[in-house]
Amino acid sequence: MRLGQLTNLTALQSVIDTTYLVAYGFNRGRIEQQKCAICYTHGVFSGKLENVILIFLATLLFFACSTKTEKNSRVNALPYYKDATFTPYWMESESTDLRAFHQISPFKLTNQEGETVTEKTFDNKIYVTDFFFTICPGICPKMTANMGILQEAFLQDDEVLLLSHSVTPERDSVPVLKNYAEDKGVKSEKWHLVTGERELIYGLGRNDYFVEEDLGLEKEPDDFLHTENFVLIDKNKHIRGIYNGLNKTAIQQLIADIKTLKKEK
């Protein structure tokens, strides 16, 4: 092989490597939205073969640049969950086993508009729920921001709702929740911030949503409920997923899983 050919091949490999890395910019191990560019040095390539390869690479980059990466669900269907171990149960949505499977209990709470919110508010709806309090200085602001991402993703989708329970209902009255909602850009038709009886809210969190996910740990009724978890509920009040509400990757997975759930009959 002549030196000129070797130089051309080395340059070609360099361009291929650069093209790949730039087109599919990796950030902490996951693909982000592509920001593409290509460097072309006059005289590096000569001959018909090199020109064909350049055209191919340019075409590849064009399609990579024009396509925004979208998170896909890990599976074509989501499992069901019935206890705090979050052991997945894989069943068809028409399975008769679901008749006796765990569902969210009836409840009656009040949202930021002073409206009554019950389990019937979510009939034939997919919803995501979490537990927070308005003066929380730690994890709650990040959770609320990530709920906001969900709100934006499904703002025009009537099938999807959000439900945030205050774990300090004695303080988080309707006016307090209203102010908080306005400050955080909450859309009342999409996202319910609710207050009510503390015993009911804590019972829902621990016995219905299993939101603390504390495997085998007994909780006293007076123990404070504080967790970063988001829980996904289907149209039949079944739990279909639990997600870290502080993690952006988990939020994108949740969005993908909601889309998967929407396809379910």
Report what the structure shows.
This protein is of the alpha+beta class and 265 residues long. It has 2 domains: 3-65, no CATH class; 96-262, Glutaredoxin (3-Layer(aba) Sandwich), CATH 3.40.30.10. It contains 6 helices and 9 strands, in the order αββαβββαβαβαββα. It has helices spanning 3-23, 48-65, 140-153, 174-184, 198-208, 248-262, and strands spanning 26-27, 30-31, 108-111, 116-118, 126-132, 160-166, 191-195, 229-233, 239-244. The strands form 2 sheets. It has a 7-stranded mixed beta sheet, with helices on both faces.
Describe what is shown at a glance:
The chain is α+β, with helices and mostly antiparallel strands. 34% of the residues lie in helices and 15% in strands. The chain has helices spanning 3-23, 48-65, 140-153, 174-184, 198-208, 248-262; strands at 26-27, 30-31, 108-111, 116-118, 126-132, 160-166, 191-195, 229-233, 239-244.
| Oligomer status | single chain
Nearest-integer average pLDDT:
81
Indicate the proportion of strand residues: 15-25%
Fraction of residues in helices?
A: 25-40%
CATH topology of the largest domain: Glutaredoxin
Report the total helices.
6
CATH architecture of the largest domain: 3-Layer(aba) Sandwich
User: What is the H/E order?
Assistant: HEEHEEEHEHEHEEH
Instruction: Report the principal-axis shape.
Output: globular
Which parts are unreliable, with pLDDT below 50 for 5 consecutive residues or more? Answer: 1-46, 64-69
Tell how many strands the DSSP assignment holds.
9
CATH class of the largest domain: Alpha Beta
- For the termini, the CA-CA separation is 62 Å
CATH superfamily of the largest domain: Glutaredoxin
The neighbouring-strand order within the major sheet is 4-3-7-6-5-8-9
* SS class: alpha+beta
Rg:
25 Å
Largest sheet: 7 strands, mixed
